[in-house]
Write a structure and sequence with these properties.
single chain, Aspartate Aminotransferase, domain 1, 2 domains, four-stranded mixed β-sheet, about 20% strand, globular, binds pyridoxal-5'-phosphate
């Protein structure tokens, strides 16, 4: 490949990208067009939960591709029935709707809550969401998000998403009125900077929604599928939502997402909801393989152990290099920096040689770690050693 990026201009510009092209992935490692290897602690933004090229995913894809790609969403197919049953059983939520992206699953959750409000709550339609929350890039999910500046970006917004403050129950209670139908949040605000909803706050939200006859919607697109050490993050608060969305890890790298709900909430009528690719067997076959792998004996215990190992390593790193500290749950963690070097560190980590390191800085003073759930201790050690060098250098 002499000019691997010759056609880069053919892509619509949406974001700056480095001049490199990844050609191969295996486990926690990516290789670029020049043969340079990179240790990947981003994994497609917490998407590749089993790392690159996991044999269970490759096997499911190739087997299903040879059998049946897509009979149309108007007909049943075996992998989607299997995955729906498995997810439903693990989540304790009776019904599953499949989609392709996290935003689409959240759109479905918003539609379901509004429909339920129209049918059972006198047309109540407001969904209380949170400052710094992130729910996707469609118009409604951008409106539900609390990212600073997004209220003006593609104005006018979709109305009906008043914003409360995370871990501040009074700010939630102040917004509840006869138009309120639901409260929607991430158990840990991922894009917001790995900011956890406190266990007690989640329990109080469950209580208040039950008392007031409202729905609790949890966006587990980033926190679900084992990322925080349990299959779903809300298990750690001992609560169960009425509606939950899943994305990212559920497909292990392929486009798959899901909307789960209690049976009593499911009120879509024919024509209300759908989508060309929804529940197609190629993607749901991968979902079955991913979920089987995550729920195999010992897997989630290992995620917890690796999460604690990474946490201890980051704490030591913070101490040794004068950073503020670390936080997170399982293998969704952040290092809080003493200054705004985040973007520069991401750049320097990727550029280091002979091997690069892929990191993410959702905020200038923060590095976020989303390695494969099967990352090894040796890979964590390597990442920490390289990051220490970078933090100690003047760059
Ligand atoms: C990534 C993310 C989304 C959006 O998912 P897409 O697949 O990019 O549409 C929604 N909610 C949360 C919490 C996310 O982390």
């Amino acid at each position: 490949m002499n000019q691997p990026l010759a056609h880069a201009d053919a892509l619509m510009w949406i974001t700056p990208r480095p001049d490199l092209l990844f050609t191969q992935g295996a486990g926690s490692w990516l290789t670029d067009h020049q043969g340079k290897r990179y240790l990947d602690f981003v994994q497609g933004w917490a998407v590749n939960c089993l790392g690159h090229g996991h044999p269970a995913i490759v096997e499911a894809l190739t087997r299903q591709a040879g059998q049946l790609l897509n009979p149309s969403p108007a007909f049943y197919n075996a992998p989607s029935l299997q995955l729906a049953a498995n997810l439903s059983r693990h989540a304790g939520l009776e019904r599953v709707f499949f989609a392709n992206t996290g935003a689409e699953a959240n759109e479905g959750a918003i539609k379901l809550a509004r429909k339920w409000g129209r049918k059972y709550r006198n047309g109540a339609h407001e969904i209380i969401t949170f400052e710094n929350g992130f729910h996707g890039r469609s118009l409604a999910t951008m409106s539900a998000s609390g990212k600073p500046g997004w209220d003006k970006l593609f104005a006018p917004q979709v109305p009906g998403f008043p914003k409360a403050r995370l871990n501040d129950l009074d700010s939630v209670a102040a917004l509840i009125n006869e138009r309120t139908v639901a409260i929607m949040l991430e158990p840990i605000q991922g894009e917001g900077g790995v900011l956890p909803a406190e266990r007690e706050f989640l329990q109080l939200l469950r209580q208040i929604t039950e008392d007031r006859g409202l729905l609790l919607i949890l966006d587990e697109v980033q926190t679900g599928m084992g990322r925080t050490g349990t299959l779903f993050a809300h298990e750690q608060a001992g609560i169960r939502p009425d509606i939950m969305t899943l994305g990212k890890g559920i497909g292990g790298g392929v486009p798959l997402s899901a909307l789960l709900a209690r049976e009593a909430v499911c009120c879509f009528e024919a024509g209300d909801q759908g989508g060309t690719y929804n529940g197609n067997p190629l993607m749901t076959a991968v979902g079955v393989a991913v979920l089987d792998t995550l729920t195999a004996p010992g897997f989630l215990e290992q995620v917890q152990a690796r999460g604690e190992y990474l946490a201890r390593g980051l704490q030591a790193l913070a101490r040794d290099t004068g950073q503020v500290g670390e936080r997170g749950q399982g293998l969704l963690r952040a290092l809080i920096l003493a200054d705004d070097r985040g973007p520069a560190l991401v750049e320097a980590a990727r550029s280091r040689s002979p091997e690069g390191l892929l990191l993410n800085a959702p905020r200038p003073h923060l590095l976020r770690f989303m390695p494969a759930l099967n990352v090894s201790e040796a890979e964590i050690d390597l990442m920490l050693a390289w990051l220490k060098e970078l933090l100690e250098s003047k760059a």
